[in-house]
Every structure is written in structure tokens, then in C-alpha cells.
Write a structure and sequence with these properties.
Length: 421
């Protein structure tokens, strides 16, 4: 829930260019955040529900404060307090101080100002000043990276938050990939029936199936790795539209260098700041990669759950000298020289019994299509078109054999039925 659902009885008075407003005395946000709580009540979901994004915002603010301190654009004591306040936000100590609705206007301005006000008031508190004493540290003039100019912390924070989220996701995907590899090795000789179009198709091993799931996840891991370089190209100091107006010419490279040192990531400045301001390719690539991973996880979740109830056969391979019972590693199963590729008859034997059974059923159904009343030329034309289909062995299992009369055929005890009209 958003922060304005909490009732605060004690307030402090703050002012901006619009006028004065009462702000709860015990909170770290200020007048701009208080206005946003009344302006944006769309989803009733607060920014604080995305802690990774809030931590990324604080990291960007810390890098900018260190850059301003290095360039002499801010007093050193103020910079030290701001950096300390950023550390507190990054550590999650002020996680409940970001109540602005996630759906808001102004390209994230309210979230950015919420962060500025929380950092400023926390810095004031660390410096022994009361909250709201903006004469010493001001959210706009001191915490904001470039004074009185729109800056670009929101895209940078969003990209850093995505990288933070990709890290644990990649680690869990690696664990699942190893688990599928282990299952593939364990079931390398267990045979099942692969399915296409919701029915049984051709034989395969469970090892091959689990190896396919592992291959899916391997490709997803590579895609996640390829996404990260797109997310490390940032546009700090480009201001509102990428021209860098009113910004110190040294700020862009200095802030980028400090952020790279803080995060340990290969962060670089965009080659074309104007183009980078509207470039969404990094977000699109991340969304595509995560969606593809979700689809592959859905495949891996459904198929093993149904496969475990299907009958399986065991391939017994001859043990060769120096090998452990013919057990083969799944990683090379697709190579032409692999034993699984050199012994196709083992799988064919399993399929052959299935084919013989299905063949008897097909011949029985075909034999029932021609009835005694059918015209002789009709039967002759069908047999000439597909003679193998009408060939049937004389066995008791075949309904079309001489020992088993066709449906509708006359017997010594039953009269012949009239042909259908």
C-alpha cells in the first residue's frame, strides 16, 4: 500500500515553488513526495515494493555525489554525509520511505525526488540537523547530481536493477542446468516414446529428453550474458534530452567512472547521448530473454511430470573393456561416432513391436471398409492403388484373415445382408 494510507498526527511544514504543505514529521520524504501521494493513486502499489530499483537509485546518487565532490561542485562535508545516507538506503535501512505509486507521470520525476528527499533528510539527521532543514543540505541543490537541471538517474537505476535481478536468475538457471545434466546421465539408457500432435510418435531415451532441457537452459544463460553489456551503457550527465545542457563537461565521464568502481561492472558512457535517451533496446532484449527462459521452463515443468507415468524400456548395451557397463555421457550423444548413434537397431527393436501391433489394427480396419455388396471394380481399384495395405496374413489375431469373417459377411448360419443403398 502507498504511504498516504498511514495516518500521521504530528507534521512539519515544508514549501516549494507552489506553496506550503504539511509533511509527517517522522518520515524522511518531503513536500514533493507528499504531493505525488495525492496526484498518483493509480495502482496503489508503492515504489518500495521494488527494493532492487531503490537500491540502484541510491547507488547512482552515491556515484554522482562522489563525482561532484571530486570536481569541487559540492562541499566535501556535505558530500560525505550524502554518501553515508546513500549507503543506508542501499543497505535497506530506509526501505519503507518510498511510498510513491509505481504508475506516475513525469518520466519518474516523483520517484527521483522521493529519493533525493530521503537522502537529504537522512544526511541532515546524520549531520545533527532536523528533517526539513534544507538550508544545510537541499534535495535539489545538493543531492541532485546536476543542480537545477533534469538528469538521467532513472534509466541508469533501472538498468542497474535489471543487472542485479539477472545475477540470481542466472545462478539458479545454472543449478537447474546441472540438475538436468545429472538426470540425463542417470537415464541415458531408459527408453520412452516421444510424442507429437498429442500422440505417441517415435522412441527416444529419457537421457536425450533431459539433455534437451539442459541445452535450452544453456542457450538462455548465454542470452542473459549477452544482455548485460547492453545494460551497462549508461547516459549519466546527458540531462533531459541528451544534449548535456548546463552540465559540467567533466561530470559525465567522472560519474561513469565512479559508478563503474562502485558496482564493479564494465559501465561505459553512451557514444551518442541524444540517441541513448530514447533507446529502449536494452529493456527489450532483457524482456525477450526472460520470456524465452520462461517458455523453456514451462516445457521442462510439464514434460517430465507426464513422462514419469509412461512405460519405459531399458537398453542393455554390451560392456566394453575399460568401460563402466556401457554408460555413456550425454554431452556427446549427438555426435556421429557416439555409441547411441552407432546402435540404431536397439531403439528400432522397441519400435518394431509397436509397428507390428499397429499394422494388425490398420489391416483390420481396412478389411471392414469393403463389404460383400460392394462392386467388384471398387475392391479391385482399392487393392490396385495400395496392394500392401490390403495384404493380410492368415492369423487368428487379424480380423481380415480367412479364419475370421469380415463384418457383414455371410456364414452358414446367417443369411447374407443386402448391400446398403
Amino acid at each position: 500500500m502507498v504511504g498516504n494510507d498511514t495516518i500521521h498526527t504530528v507534521t512539519r511544514k515544508e514549501h516549494d515553488c507552489i506553496g506550503y504543505m504539511d509533511v509527517p514529521k517522522d518520515v524522511y520524504w518531503g513536500i514533493h513526495t507528499q504531493r505525488a501521494l495525492g496526484n498518483f493513486t493509480v495502482s496503489r502499489i508503492a515504489d518500495s515494493t521494488h527494493p532492487q530499483l531503490m537500491r540502484a537509485y541510491a547507488t547512482v546518487k552515491r556515484a554522482c555525489a562522489e563525482a561532484n565532490d571530486e570536481l569541487g561542485l559540492i562541499d566535501h562535508d556535505k558530500a560525505r554525509l550524502i554518501v553515508a545516507a546513500c549507503h543506508d538506503v542501499e543497505n535497506g535501512e530506509l526501505a519503507d520511505q518510498f511510498p510513491v505509486d509505481v504508475l506516475q507521470g513525469g518520466a519518474g520525476t516523483s520517484t527521483n525526488m522521493n529519493m533525493n528527499e530521503v537522502i537529504a533528510n537522512r544526511a541532515l539527521e546524520l549531520g545533527g540537523h532536523p528533517k526539513g532543514d534544507y538550508g544545510f543540505i537541499h534535495p535539489n541543490d545538493d543531492v541532485k547530481p546536476i543542480r537545477n537541471r533534469p538528469t538521467t538517474p532513472t534509466p541508469a537505476a533501472c538498468k542497474l536493477a535489471l543487472i542485479d535481478a539477472i545475477g540470481p536468475l542466472a545462478e539458479e538457471t545454472k543449478k537447474l542446468t546441472r540438475a538436468f545434466h545429472d538426470l540425463a546421465d542417470k537415464h541415458t539408457n531408459d527408453v520412452t516414446i516421444g510424442r507429437t500432435q498429442l500422440q505417441d510418435a517415435v522412441p527416444m531415451t529419457y537421457g536425450q529428453e533431459f539433455h534437451a532441457f539442459a541445452s535450452f537452459l544453456k542457450s538462455d544463460l548465454l542470452a542473459l550474458e549477452h544482455v548485460v553489456p547492453q545494460l551497462t551503457t549508461l547516459n549519466l550527465g546527458a540531462t533531459a534530452i541528451g544534449t548535456g545542457i548546463c552540465a559540467d563537461l567533466r561530470f559525465r565521464t567522472t560519474a561513469t567512472r565512479h559508478l563503474a568502481a562502485i558496482t564493479g561492472l564494465p559501465i561505459t558512457a553512451a557514444s551518442d547521448p541524444v540517441a541513448a535517451m530514447t533507446d529502449m533496446s536494452g529493456y527489450i532484449a532483457t524482456s525477450q530473454t526472460v520470456k524465452n527462459l520462461a517458455i523453456h521452463l514451462q516445457k521442462g515443468r510439464r514434460r517430465p511430470a507426464t513422462a514419469q507415468f509412461r512405460p519405459a524400456y531399458r537398453i542393455r548395451r554390451p560392456q566394453r573393456a575399460g568401460t563402466a557397463g556401457g554408460q555413456q555421457h550425454h554431452a556427446r550423444q549427438g555426435e556421429p561416432g557416439h555409441p547411441r548413434m552407432r546402435e540404431p537397431m536397439l531403439l528400432h527393436g522397441v519400435r518394431h513391436g509397436h509397428d507390428r501391433h499397429m499394422g494388425r489394427i490398420r489391416r483390420a480396419i481396412a478389411a471392414q471398409r469393403l463389404r460383400p455388396g460392394d462392386h467388384p471394380r471398387t475392391a479391385q481399384r482399392h487393392r490396385a492403388a495400395d496392394p500392401a495395405r490390403w495384404r493380410c496374413s492368415a492369423s487368428a489375431a487379424c480380423p481380415a484373415s480367412p479364419s475370421t469373417p469380415r463384418r457383414g459377411a455371410a456364414t452358414p448360419n446367417t443369411p447374407r445382408r443386402s448391400p446398403p443403398h
